[in-house]
Amino acid sequence: MSNKNKVSFSTLSPIIFRDAASKPALAKFFSLFPGLGYAAGYKVAQRVYKFGGQPWFNDIISRNYKSSFTNTFGERKGKLMMQATAGSLTGIGEVVLLPLDALKIKRQVNPEAFRGRGFVRIFMEEGTTLYRGWGWTMARNAPGHLLGITDYSKATWGQNFVASVSGAVASITVAAPLDVVKTRIQNANFERKVSGFTVVKELIKNEGMGAFFKGLTPRGILVVGPKLVFSYTLAQSLIPLFGKYV
């Protein structure tokens, strides 16, 4: 998503391994884990928020607006629309975790921006700059979570798996253009403020419309897709089990 050069077989190694492209295999392998601490912190917080937030939003919508959804969409589709709306609101609210996401991306593709500073010092010095791209993040998360989160607690494991595959691939594909813009904004140096519309203009001018889907196959289909499938399928299988004891 951050790479602005044309991808070919000859340029693949420098794009993937960056400064470690000419180093031994073991060094190349470990070079694939920059920003691991920020990524772990972000993912743990993200998963706790997602799986806890979506049912909370769904309860609020069901308690206050169930009749409106039922009258508009019918009983069955109304329930699905309430769950989808809850998922979308959950995605929008995820913007509170944006600083961790921004630091993860910067550590992965622009480590020079840290200049030897740790998390606390960066947070104190940069402040609200860590929320750059928040509007694009909300715009990306709203349709992505609408398609990617729903309630499969009464479905079988196989139904959960198939539904998770479909939802993950669809949500990642729909949100890909906005994800590219968000990432380009976040990977810039702290002192460089980049407008999302500037990113869009430069993308179209220099890389073409296809650039809005850069990274879709490796990140979206090969990595995030299976990850979401595993997490949602496992979570929806365990939630009813834990519900018997809590």
Tags for this entry?
single chain; 246 residues; mainly alpha; 0% strand
Helix content: over 70%
Gyration radius, in Å: 20 Å
Order of helices and strands: HHHHHHHHHH
Span of the ends, CA to CA: 42 Å
Number of strands: 0
Structural class: mainly alpha
Residue-averaged pLDDT: 81
Into which percentage range does the β-strand content fall? under 5%
Shape: globular
Question: What composes the largest sheet?
Answer: none
Unreliable sequence segments: none
Our count of helices gives: 10
Outline the structure in words:
Helix 7 runs antiparallel to helix 8. It is globular, with a radius of gyration of 20 Å. It starts with 8 loop residues before the first helix and ends with a helix. 28% of the residues are buried. By secondary structure, the chain is mainly alpha-helical. The protein contains ten helices and no strands. The model has no long low-confidence stretch (mean pLDDT 81).
Fold topology:
Blueprint: H1 9-17, H2 25-30, H3 36-73, H4 75-93, H5 98-109, H6 119-126, H7 134-148, H8 157-186, H9 196-206, H10 216-243
